[in-house]
Design brief:
- The structure is a single chain.
- This protein is of the alpha/beta class and 233 residues long.
- It contains eight helices and eight strands.
- It has a single domain, classed as Aldolase class I (TIM Barrel).
- Strands 1-8-7-6-5-4-3-2 form an eight-stranded parallel β-sheet.
- It starts with 10 loop residues before the first strand and ends with a helix.
Length: 233
């Protein structure tokens, strides 16, 4: 059964991993003006994933430039020490990988205690079973549709069945009276495939190179965000 009840609340989330790092303030202002719903902030530690990106100081630096929520994805191990730093730096949502935490329930509680929305991130080969024991603490579930570490990768098609399963779990939880949980997908999302990803059950879509790679001559970020929304419609 295709679940479509989530389709009335769809969010587009540009990932600054693909932005011009020499002018991040201008880049986040531009995607906000172009109609983005959140800003996705990828944190990599060259330990949990084979790349090194940005930390709390950069989050703090871009915070005054946008009113949008900042969605921080921690690809770090261990995670707990960084959570208060990102909350203080202006994060609104903090997600982490279950494999990177010794105590998943405690880490989710730590995020919430800092005043942020909390979520789990699942790599393509990570089981969704981690969700089952912490549903009451989840505000968001993020499914990676590429192996994390680098932008510009191709969407892994087997993620579609995983999105459907995650949607079923969320729907069963909410039908029992549980809180709403966003279902976010990150990796290889393009105009050509975003509709299929939504039909599978996603309601929040991270797009990096698809947005920040848009040529200015064609209207830039606003045009591609409008094209993504049109594809979703």
């Amino acid at each position: 059964m295709t679940v479509v009840s989530h389709l009335s609340h769809l969010r587009l989330v540009p990932s600054i991993l693909s932005a011009d790092f020499a002018k991040l303030g201008a880049e986040v202002r531009a995607v906000q003006e172009a109609g983005a719903d959140l800003i996705h902030f990828d944190v990599m530690d060259n330990h949990y994933v084979p790349n090194l990106t940005i930390g709390p100081l950069v989050c703090e630096a871009i915070r005054p430039h946008v009113d949008l929520p900042i969605d921080v994805h921690l690809m770090v191990e261990p995670v707990d020490a960084l959570i208060p730093l990102f909350a203080k730096a202006g994060a609104n949502i903090i997600t982490f990988h279950p494999e990177a935490s010794r105590h998943i329930d405690r880490t989710l509680s730590l995020i919430k205690d800092q005043g942020c929305k909390a979520g789990l991130v699942f790599n393509p080969a990570t089981s969704l079973e981690y969700m089952d024991y912490v549903m009451d603490k989840l505000d968001i579930v993020l499914l990676m549709s590429v192996n994390p570490g680098f932008g510009g990768q191709h969407f892994i098609e087997t993620t579609l069945s995983k999105i459907k399963l995650a949607r079923q779990k969320i729907q069963a939880w909410t039908l029992k009276g549980g809180q709403d949980i966003w279902l976010e997908v990150d990796g290889g999302i393009k105009i050509e495939n975003i509709a299929r990803i939504a039909q599978a059950g996603a309601d929040t879509f991270v797009a990096g190179s698809a947005i920040f790679g848009a040529p200015d001559a064609d209207g830039g970020y606003k045009t591609v965000i409008q094209q993504l929304r049109k594809a979703l419609a």
